[in-house]
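Repro:
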Amino acid sequence: MKSPFEIIANVINRHTLIVAGLVVGVMLFALYGASMTTMKTGTDTYLYTDEPVGSLLIHYEEEFGSDSVILIIEGSDVTSPAVVNYLEELEADIADERYIASVTGLPDLIKSVNNGVIPQSQAEIDACISLLPEEYSEMVLPSGTMTLMSVPLETGYPEDAEESIVNTINSIIDSSNPPPGISVSASGSPAFSVEMKEDMQKNMGTLIGLAMLLMIVAMALLFGHVRYRMLPVLIVFCGIILTFGVMGLAGIALTSIVIAAFPVLIGIGIDYAIQFQSRFDEERRRSSITDAVKTTITSSGPAILLAMIATALGFAALSLLAPSPMVSDFGTICIVGIACCYLCAMIIVPTFAKLVNYTPKNTGSSSDDPESCVLEWKGCNEAGKAHKSSKNVSFMERYDELLSRLAEKIARHPGPILIIFLMVAIVGFQLDSKVIIDTDEDSMVDQNMPALITMNKVTSVMGSTSTITAYVKADSILDYNTLKWMDDFGEYAVSKHDDLTGATSIATYIKSYNNGVIPSDKKTLEDVWESIPESTKESYVSGKTEAVIEFSMEDISIPATQELIADMEADLNWYTMHPGMDVTFTGQMYMFSDLINGIKDTKNPMTYLGFVLIFIFLLLVYRKYTAISPLVPIVMIVGWNGLIMYSLGLTYSLLTATLGAMTIGVASEYTILIMERFEEEREKGVGTYVAIQTAIQKIGTAISVSGLTTVFGFSALLLATSPIIQNFGTVTVITVGFSLVGAIVVMPAVISILERFRPKEA
């Protein structure tokens, strides 16, 4: 019975034009699917909504999370009558739009102390401002050159309406007619989110474009020994289109983390294309084009498939144990992408070769027969000497020769190599635990992004806008004991923790509307309740059983926030609750703290699971102890990564937390391909050292080209505007370099050691 690879080879050989037409048709359909891809930000990209922390945060945002767009008005004098009148008109225009709950700014405060009328002289306006409570005037009018306008949105507004809301507000601002010298800019979480999506789109296009451009440069420099050197770039481009098509049709959205998957896919995909084209070029030099197609697909197809599955298992560990949905999607897209790139490479290389009647370049060497290169270094034959002495030997042939010599020396003396590299890895494992974890959302976007700059400006004026939220569930929020507990716990927490600046709840407003006291009798409490504005109650109470306490805080680091939340949770467990109450912390700051814990808890298990999955897979495939050989260099590479991250002061983020599992996936491809070629040579009856030399010579050259090309592709990440992606780019470039060292230097030593324990054949 013919294998699937034989069937594919026969179909390509016999029906080349039909296969080419199918490839074009699939690409066109993929373009249609790609047009359906969407961008996504928000809570449900960070947390799993079916788990307690995520579901509570979503519920809190739906019931209490009234986002606000903050307008920053700047000019030489923002209190002049002309400016105040302009702001009143701007407020009225914005307030009429859908999903806008209210608009509050300087005109409202002035009217509140002037019988609902804005005075038309500077002296009267100044007099009104002097009558305002200091806490209000400082917040809305921090200086004579800046005033802030708050535009709270309706609670529970649809997330897909966020962009249209922000765009509408910006359109109103653009079409308004501000007085000379006055500028208005939008800030706040909604504006930040919308601009973050736009930045993601810009990053995606830039990264993919740069990665492809850098790979073209790399292919021109490194792959010149074969004809049609740019074919791998075309194949990767087709693989990326196919991946986008699958994403669009499957409804997988792009996030700030998922975007980083595409340079990764380009790097891995180029390797598949180079492996297939290199093997085809090698086979074509000694056989007909029909035989070359068959041998390439039936020999390299299964070997690269094994490497691809191992890589996919490394990424599967991310999908299974990811601390965040966007990390899980990153792993999923990497699996889909490498499968697409593998299929494109296996089908397009031989199909293209048949269409153009591929003929290899004449290298000018004395022999194009690869068998003449399969020589023991000591005692090579006359053909080998002639080959060495040829004046027309190409650079890649010299590199082949270098790899052969290196592999032979390592194979004969493997001990020192393994000991040195293992010791470095052990040091790296020790230092890995000291690498800082950072989940700050600001690190995911361009630090020069206007929305981020304006948010920082608001923070510098108003102080930190971050809060830690305590969600209260009780039999009745209007119960005196419940209100008293909320008020007492808030005061206790603020008095205990210096980083907390205040605690606000419905109890705070009940006190302020009742001379600083929570009424104990039901009738008075109900009267006070009725006197509180509905908009205020909606911010702190939902129905009769749910409420929140908002703890304002200083602008402190994420690790410090994590420590503060841990202390507050300990306080909550100690502070006796009123019967029928249940209190849990939630909110954005709690989410980021939970993410840090998630990264800490899953970073190493993701790596371990990747190792286990690949080891089980290799055992099932090879059914002998030597199946462990591809994993030995990878263990070392993971340790080297920890050392380099600590040495360079890099941090773990949602993206670099995937490094261990991703390293396993990427590096396993190189090491498995070398082991596969080694086993192929051993089956031909050659000795261990010759088989190692040939494997490193043939596969080592290809992975060197593809690895350096991958480094070029990953270098595009260094040019991203997002710090988190830049960080990831630095680490992955280093990881690919380590993977090449592990495959070319460590792998021969591992094979040599294990081969010494291979049972002697009878």
